[in-house]
Amino acid sequence: FFNLFMERDIELENLSIDELKSHKLESFAFEKRLQSVNRTEKWVYVNLSIMFGDEGEPLQFIAAVEDISEKKLNQQKILELNKQLSKTVTEQGQEIEMIFNMALDMLGVLDFSGHFRKVSPTWERDLGWQVEDLASMTVFDLVHPEDEGAVRAFFEVLKTGQAVKGFEYRFLCKNGDFIWVNWNALGDLTNEWIIT
Question: What is the pLDDT of residues 140-165, one digit of tens each?
Fold first, then answer.
């Protein structure tokens, strides 16, 4: 029986077979490749147990064998697709990061409570705030007090998944000055983000 396995896969654990013979295991299972008469490979799932005689001596192995070649082929295809997907996602992530870093406008991703998740470097250029500063703030910490009500209403509209264009309000710079900003923003309901 064991001679049917591909030579490079004959690594059956002798320990497991010994444990079967000594009644320490009832059965054990493994996946291996078999070589058919026409030299093609087949993957099989084998559940191996042993039959004992009246005095507890091992008489014969009992093997339940299932062809899992198609399952293994599908697993390999999934692994290859995952590799391709991972590569694509990485490349697209790099492209998005490059666009984000080279943007002339203040781009940002905020959660629905107004916390900054990601901002482009232009925030530091235009407002003086570093990314680390903004990570501990909400947009409401930086809005002019007279504009806060309008900004909160703006957020409520965005939380419904709508886009808002040309919303103007005053934003606090790190040096204490306020500047007027004009925001186009979109609410992303799936991630509960606001993208500006």
Answer: 999 999 999 999 999 999 999 989 99
